[in-house]
Specification:
The protein is α+β, with helices and mostly antiparallel strands and about 400 residues long. It folds into 3 domains: about 100 residues, no CATH class; about 90 residues, no CATH class; about 120 residues, Nucleotidyltransferase, domain 5, CATH 3.30.420.10. Helix content is about 35%, strand content about 20%. The chain has 10 helices and 14 strands. The chain has a 5-stranded antiparallel sheet. Strands 11-10-9-12-13 form a 5-stranded mixed sheet. It has a 4-stranded antiparallel sheet with strand order 1-2-3-4, with helices on one face. The longest helix has 25 residues.
Amino acid sequence: MEQPPGFINPQFPNHVCKLSKALYGLKQAHRAWFQRLSTFLISYGFVCSRADTSLFVLRKESCIMYLLVYVDDLILTGNDSSAIATFIARLHDEFAIKDLGDLSYFLGLEVSYTDSGLFLTQAKYAKDILIRADLYDSKPVSTPLAPHESFTADDLSYSDPTLYRSLVGALQYLTITRPDLSYAVNQLSQFLHAPTVEHFRAVKRLLRYVKGTISFGLTYTRPTTSSIVGYSDADWAHCLDTRRSTYGYSIFLGGNLVSWSAKKQPTVSRSSCESEYRAMANTAAELVWITHLLRELHALPPDRPTLLCDNKSALFMTQNPVSHKRAKHIDLDYHFIRELVNSGKLYTKFVPTNLQVADIFTKSLPRAQFDTFRAMLRLGPPPFRLKGGIR
């Protein structure tokens, strides 16, 4: 490590210090701690996941344990309570840890247990954002953005861009349990470098929507099926400044939402078919990653994943290898979705637009349509009956 300022040896100014121990707060501390922890876990029998390096999986006969690491916070679960207790005791001997019991609060995420599963929310974190913005007593609105609203960079500059960046950055973390905010946050994040008055007005509207849905979260129930279903959609040439398309996807495992995204495509598409096809390719890449993760968790469903799209032309391109003028210029890496379909690893299917739940990630919708898709994501208020709560 470099010599600290003020303690540089004048005789050997270019020499470095030897790091004997990675103290808390140094740049090397995180890597040294993870190496120490992972070495212990691997020696105990865990295997580090290749899909997610912070996940460790142990399987011995019928016993399965999962351990997720975030710096010095650990989540442990499994199907054998005695094996979990034995491992925690061994972990106590190796490290100075504190067992907090059943998972209830983790990195701002609040976990509530219901009769059929889990309920995840960030109500406290959302309240802190509203208090910081001085909008906790504001009047709620029904949707994050006005219907069919679009943004441009041509407007009067906002006087306090630091506040704008702070609020939008905080809202980005809120989307972990609030996929209904993903599209609005994505749009507002594109103007962090030079926000305008119109952009900050949209942030205030978004916060007013959060005020009215502050207790909302995701519900996860025991699945009746183990199928993987993905929805893919794109809004062609949505950006008024660059004419790039916005795409989004939502992926369900056994009816529970496990992955979603709302992004602007990096290149301009010449047709709606092209933008939808690129969106399907990106969704297929996420589906492949999820299947790898589930395989390592020993929970991969036997059926192949299904990808749903509401554009028949893009759907035809995934199933037909014939090249034509509309597809000649598309990057070759996007065509890997054809290989997945031809090899039987992925099934693509048409879905009507009124059932295309990924629409909520590509455009600002009217209230009725927005509420319908939000319910399809299993996003809503907490269940009435919570274990350990007040009925």
